[in-house]
Amino acid sequence: MRRTQLYLQEHLWKLLHIRSRQQRTTVSELVRQAVEEKYGAALEERRQAMEALVGLRKGRPGLPDTETYIRKLRKGKRQQRLAS
Fold first, then answer.
1. Is residue 43 part of a domain?
2. pTM, two decimal places
3. Range of the domain at 27
4. Is residue 1 part of a domain?
5. Mind listing the pLDDT tens digit for each residue in 22-70?
6. What is the C-alpha separation between 41 and 72, in angstroms, rounded?
7. Which pLDDT does position 55 carry in this prediction?
8. Contact of 16 with 30, CB cutoff 8 Å
């Protein structure tokens, strides 16, 4: 954990101070929770989404190998386009 210093507007400090008393926790803990909710959760959700995509199409029947598929896409009017 790293130590940091924040400058808060007076009304925010009062809100945090009141909330910390109500929840019997520290202002620091409330700030950590807020930062985690705002920035940490989104990163975790994106990481999980990306992990879910890994291998999604692996072993799917009927798919050609990558080289064959790309060569097939590149066939056709490519030479005509380059000549013009």
1. yes
2. 0.51
3. 10-77
4. no
5. 999 999 999 999 998 888 777 778 888 888 877 766 777 776 777 887 8
6. 42
7. 74
8. yes
